[in-house]
Amino acid sequence: MDNKNDFNSNIDLYKYSIRSNVNINLTKTTEMSTRFVANFDDYTGPIDGGSAMYRKVMQANPVRFKPFYEPDSNFSYAKHTLFGNFETGNYLNPYAEAMRGYRDYSRSNMLTTVEVKQNLDAIAKGLMARALVNFDRRSEYSISRAYVPFYYRISSFDLTNDSYRLVRLNPTTGRETLDYDANNTSRTVANSFYFEGATQYNNNFGKNSINGLLVFTARQFKQGAPSTIQLSLPTRNLSFSGDSHTILIPAIWQNLPTVITLPNGLHKITDGVSFLRSAPGGLFPMSLSLNRSATFSGC
Hints:
The chain is mainly β. It is 7% helix and 57% strand. The chain has three helices and 16 strands. A hairpin with a 5-residue loop joins strand 12 (259-261) and strand 13. The chain is rod-shaped, with a radius of gyration of 36 Å.
């Protein structure tokens, strides 16, 4: 922080996070879970940020001029910092870039999810339904305030009394007062909605099994500060998908031993294996698997 500035441009960042997970058994067959997450950021610091300031330090010339000069007799009245520069004042001075202003930004993100699961064994064993609703809210704004530094260079140096004379390089373009920098100002407001409903069936009949899944999803996204007419319109998507998986094992194979001796003297476990080798080059299927899946989507 420069003592001649009326503000503090040092980095000051506060982060807050809130999280809550709650599971509730509404009935013996119904479960509801709620999840809430909120993140908040508050920042004050250099306009370009810490990483950008480090890059500027690495790019600056370390010997052409000092970061700032003490006032000489000609500029003893100056109330601002006398930042160093060279020639016409177009050299990069990282100290001036860090001290010339500051940026404020505030960011918040809130996420809420509610999910309900229902066991439907009373209707059909292995049947289950669930529904999920999600809300996401994001907002952010950034404001920058800055002045235009006055740059100086040494025009002459007196070795006898260790004194120097300064020359102001930008007497007409420099400014001591803070101004609002619209080019470094941004605002973001967005929200999204997501719904998912699913029905699942999973049941075994002896060594046979049937699995089925139907899923419906709906999404919506909207921006609160769009830059074009296209971005101001909501983005929506609907989709419906399904999948089924059936495994049937013929009755004549259901009583096969767990371990079978093959003609070549090797042993092969039959449980969970789809093929049984009976002779070189010969394969007999042990199960019949049927799969069906489909997905439909639209905006």
